[in-house]
Amino acid sequence: MSVSPAPSPLPDPVARWRDALDNLSPHASPCRYLVPAKWAAIREDAIAFCDRHGAEAHRLGWTAAELFAVHPEHGTLRIDYCGALMMTELHPSAVEATRIVTARGSARRNKPGQVWGVPVWEYARSGKGR
């Protein structure tokens, strides 16, 4: 019987991302117009991404905003401010330097003129989603 190696610890920033996501309720959407069922799936995908691909994303220089941002006033209604993992249920399967590979294609990091919002956990703390 072989023993699986212990999972390697996440880099500190990735562990903070994961903890912040984990602390958000899967049953109560942080964004007013994002229905709870969609939020639960997005949250689950984002946590799984941290576990599976977070260390590589961090190594490649991805930031919390590039991955988990929402518009600071309008949440997910302004998708032009959203991070790669906050727009819909994408089921990310890999991370590269400029994109997140998903079941439906990819979410790009380097959109010309991109302005990022705030990480969804900061938005939730602001209370603007209620």
Q: How would you describe what is shown here?
A:
It is a single chain. The chain has 130 residues and is of the alpha+beta class. It has one domain (12-126). Helices cover 36% and strands 11% of the residues. It contains four helices and five strands. The chain has helices at 12-22, 36-59, 64-68, 120-126, and strands at residues 69-70, 94-95, 99-102, 105-108, 118-119. It has a three-stranded antiparallel beta sheet. A two-stranded antiparallel sheet has the order 1-5. Strand 2 and strand 3 form a beta hairpin.
Which properties best describe this structure?
alpha+beta; two-stranded antiparallel sheet; 36% helix; globular
In brief, what are we looking at here?
With 130 residues, the chain is of the alpha+beta class. It has helices at 12-22, 36-59, 64-68, 120-126, and strands at residues 69-70, 94-95, 99-102, 105-108, 118-119.
Give me the number of helical elements. 4
Per the principal axes of the C-alpha atoms, what is the gross shape? globular
| Termini gap | 52 Å
What are the low-pLDDT stretches, counting only 5+ consecutive residues below 50? none
Strand order of the largest sheet: 2-3-4
Average predicted confidence as pLDDT: 89
The total count of strands amounts to: 5
| Strand content bin | 5-15%
The main β sheet shows up as: 3 strands, antiparallel
Radius of gyration, CA atoms, in whole angstroms: 14 Å
Decide which structural class fits the backbone.
alpha+beta
Order of helices and strands: HHHEEEEEH
How many separate domains? 1
Helix content: 25-40%
